[in-house]
């Protein structure tokens, strides 16, 4: 049963899972008819990605998915969230589908179901077909229609076996970093491109929700949002904080779930909107997907396209191996806030710890800091539930170390270490820790 922006009855067990994304793990970038995405292009531009890394091979999951499912079985997860590469199934983004690409996801989904693991499919984790970018990509309003056609293809092909669908992963983040800061593909620093992208992604979300609802019987639908408290670096940066909060936390969930833009963005979005757009964007969904790692810190920067920039956490704050602030209390507070603001069941679709670890002399990875982080965050999650937040699942980012966007392969978030030259997968100490957590949580019912 679906209740528009209301409560969905709790019918199942708490879901434990792991998450990945197509471009970060699949590799096989030029194989079986896959078309190029904006990330293939971006990686080839000078100084965009650390070390000149690309997703050409990544974890070679395209060929090694069966081995990765064995790892998931060993972990004991009930669910696996992955994304479909739009250019693998529609090499130019629209028009003729690529049967070989579609068949890959058939194999993956069938193998997951055989292993007793539920597939959670995200339609868009940032790999826009380059051919669509050549037509303006998300800055073109037509992109919403192209996305809806792609969603129709996916719903018809996999909707008999997949019921959990997310439209977008972190839509506020890929628009802000891709069109505002220029750190992610397509690498623009253009305020009006950013505002257009935000609105068109919102339209694409609403259109895709309608398509999935129409074509997938028993569908359970949502989107996956990053949501983190933004803190001003100094009291003088308060205006920057308000503005970043509107872009970072509000620009997608508010119109998609409440039917209005954050007031700080209203005036700027207004000229792009057409009559009826907010009703097209705000469609009934079943859950709120949350990605949360850390609070973020902001400073005003009159020289930047948006008037602000991100900055380091204060020196007294504990940090992960990639410099992100560790603040489990902020996670618990965010869960409670989201519960009250959007009144939807919450699935934590990403949480994890990045570092630059290497195996020790015995070839083991004793990632105690990751274990400490995950223990603190899962305990904060339990606190949030005690405080009344309706949280129904938790997915670790990520199963494997993988291509971490502009940080390349240096930043590692996996429960499993990737030895890239040999493609050997080595479970870290955190892998056994998470397996135990799931086992004891499931024993307690
Ligand atoms: C999130 C992304 C995911 C991964 C993690 C570390 O913002 O959704 O792809 O890069 O951060």
Record keyword descriptors for this entry.
445 residues, alpha/beta, TIM Barrel, 8-stranded parallel barrel, 3-stranded mixed beta sheet, 15% strand, globular, binds beta-D-fucopyranose
Radius of gyration (Å): 20 Å
Strands, count = 13
What is the H-and-E element order?
EHHHEHHEHHEHHEEHHHHEEEHEHEEEH
Which cofactor or ligand species appear? beta-D-fucopyranose
Assign the CATH superfamily: Glycosidases
**Given the C-alpha coordinates, what overall shape results?**
globular
Q: Give helix % range.
A: 40-55%
Number of helices: 16
Strand order of the largest sheet: 1-2-3-4-5-7-10-11
Strand content: 15-25%
End-to-end separation in angstroms reads: 24 Å
For the record, the CATH class is: Alpha Beta
Mean pLDDT over all positions: 97
Find the CATH topology: TIM Barrel
* Unreliable segments of 5+ consecutive residues: 1-6
Q: Please state the structural category.
A: alpha/beta
CATH architecture tag: Alpha-Beta Barrel
Oligomer: single chain
User: In the residues, how many domains can be counted?
Assistant: 1
Biggest sheet overview? 8 strands, parallel, barrel
Can you characterise this structure?
- With 445 residues, the chain is an alpha/beta fold.
- The protein has a single domain, classed as Glycosidases (TIM Barrel, Alpha-Beta Barrel), CATH 3.20.20.
- The protein is 41% helix and 15% strand.
- It contains 16 helices and 13 strands.
- The strands form 3 sheets. The protein has an 8-stranded parallel beta barrel with strand order 1-2-3-4-5-7-10-11, surrounded by 5 helices.
- β12 (416-419) and β13 form a beta hairpin.
- The radius of gyration is 20 Å and the shape is globular.
- The site of beta-D-fucopyranose (FCB) has 12 residues, from loops.
